[in-house]
Amino acid sequence: MRIEQVPTPAYVIDEAKLVNNLEILKSVQDRTGCKVLLAQKAFSMYTTYPLISQYLSGTTASGLYEARLGREEFGGEVHVFAPAFKDADLEEILEIADHIVFNSERQLRKHMDKCRAAGVSIGLRINPECSTQDEQALYDPCATGSRFGVRIDQFSEDLLDLVDGLHFHTLCEQNSDDLKTTLDAVEAKFGSYLHKVKWLNMGGGHHVTREDYNLDLLISSIQHMQEKYGLEVYIEPGEAIALNAGYLVTEVLDIVENGIETLVLDASATCHMPDVLEMPYRPPLRHGFEAGEKEFTYRLSSNTCLTGDIIGDYSFEKPVEIGDKLYFEDMAIYSFVKNNTFNGIGLPSLVLMDQTGDCRIIKSFGYEDFKGRLS
């Protein structure tokens, strides 16, 4: 079927755009020898893992379940980071992971012997205390009071005897100039220790596949760390892998007139695109414009009972009618990995669109998926 024929609501992953992103990321690996890993927290449609694994070196996980998924479906290296590990989870993770990164000295010392016995490479997350984001502290791992990473005033040289590498993650949807600023801070604070470890993981948040991304600066930054310190370098983007490579297709169920015309959709911000409310984030809409820019302006909302379940106000060149389909763009990342069934609203189907434009439904969801997570 074509995308216009897909039952709604549905997330549609665009294979051609996914491949374009992967080719850019592979070029980073090829030019530097670094390893690029898929951060599954942003995109984990494992039907595409055989494709992605042709380009990237492995996966990163935020816990046991993502680690298992990466090992079972992707292959390659499996890296795991969590603020803290449950003992029972760690026992299973040790059978899966190649790298485990600990968030604190206490966690490191508690688990290091088990990791060594399992032959797993051990890392420690550092906090360079270098905020480069304009967003609020909610998204800044370097904000005052952040629970992430060991600061330089907490770091002692004897920790180097316990670890193979260091890890930092400070970026969110940012360009390589912010990476360069962060690396300057890492070198200023931790540079004397970098010669004494084997690898450096620069985390995620690198918007490598964005049109205005400075790829050459990323390349030179990686090469600098490799050449000066003899490090193996990892980056673990999530968004960059599937950026602009997916859509959320929805149908207009009704139009409510109450001061502004509101389109009631079968897709929901709170259920199906939670970043709209959390970040907040305004998703691009095919043939949609800013409110008031075109003749016909509507508020796009959903079929839940939450008054604030509003995606945003958009304008159109022609009137929208009940039964029309709308196509939200950039809906591959942080969408189906975060969705929920609030109000008993069904989960959108997962659809893969091949490079010829043909779509096939990978998975549909129903009542049992809603009921199965309740008791």
Automatic annotation (TrEMBL):
Residues 11-331 form the Orn/DAP/Arg decarboxylase 2 C-terminal domain. Its EC number is 4.1.1.96. Its cofactor is pyridoxal 5'-phosphate. InterPro entries: Ala_racemase/Decarboxylase_C, De-COase2_C, Nsp_de-COase, PLP-binding_barrel. Transmembrane segments: none annotated. Substrate binds at E239, D275. It is an enzyme of class 4 (lyase). The keyword Lyase applies. Gene3D superfamilies: Alanine racemase, Lyase, Ornithine Decarboxylase, Chain A, domain 1. Keywords: Decarboxylase, Lyase, Pyridoxal phosphate, Spermidine biosynthesis. GO terms for biological process: lysine biosynthetic process via diaminopimelate; nor-spermidine biosynthetic process; spermidine biosynthetic process. GO terms for molecular function: diaminopimelate decarboxylase activity. NCBIfam families: nspC (TIGR01047). This is Carboxynorspermidine decarboxylase. The gene is nspC.
